Amino acid sequence: MEPRINLMANEVGAKVGKRIYNVSLAIRESSLPRALQELVELRASQINGCGWCVDVHTKEAALAGETPVRLNLVAAWRESTVFTEAERAALALTEEGTRLADAHQGVSDETWAQVRKHFDDDRIAALVSLVAMINAANRLGVITRMQGGSYDPGMFAGLSD
């Protein structure tokens, strides 16, 4: 399966990509721990089947200090003992916020209560924004068939405006 288009080589695609990257920078600069951000992005990317994003967030999570065991178990976090209650709340929010069409209810009150228990308003705002942005990025990657395997950590560092 070949990529359909290189959005970053297209004028409009590059403009959109830069804006998405700048929103992501605002989230990165929040107090939400970087390793947790990567786990959230990895889990949503797994659900959405975005090979490029799985590649990016696996590598970035490793750089942020995630262990191979935790990276390997993120897809089965409910059946794993290596995630904290706060991480479980964030991963549940990620799954429910990613599977909107499947869940019909959106994010459950139970999941929201767990998120409120473990995160302050600033971290919740970052977490909700992160779930929305990674889902947008996943759709760009899946629609255009971006392939995983070639990402080098930090390769977009000079992309911001």
Explain what you see:
The structure is a single chain. The mean pLDDT is 93. α1 runs antiparallel to α8 (121-144), α2 (34-48) runs parallel beside α8 (121-144) and α5 (85-98) packs across α7. With 161 residues, this protein is mainly α. The chain has a single domain, classed as AhpD-like, CATH 1.20.1290.10. It is built from eight helices and no strands. It has helices at residues 11-28, 34-48, 51-63, 68-73, 85-98, 100-103, 109-118, 121-144. 28% of the residues are buried. 65% of the residues lie in helices and 0% in strands. It is globular and about 45 Å long.
SSE pattern: HHHHHHHH
Q: What structural category arises from helix and sheet content?
A: mainly alpha
Distance between the amino and carboxyl termini? 32 Å
Number of domains: 1
**Overall average pLDDT:** 93
Helix content: 55-70%
| Low-confidence residue ranges | none
Write out the CATH superfamily name.
AhpD-like
Number of helices: 8
Q: In CATH terms, what is the fold-level topology?
A: AhpD-like
Number of strands: 0
Biggest β-sheet strands, sense, barrel:
none
- Described by the principal axes of the CA atoms, the overall outline is globular
Proportion of beta-strand residues: under 5%
CATH architecture: Up-down Bundle
In terms of quaternary structure, what is this?
single chain
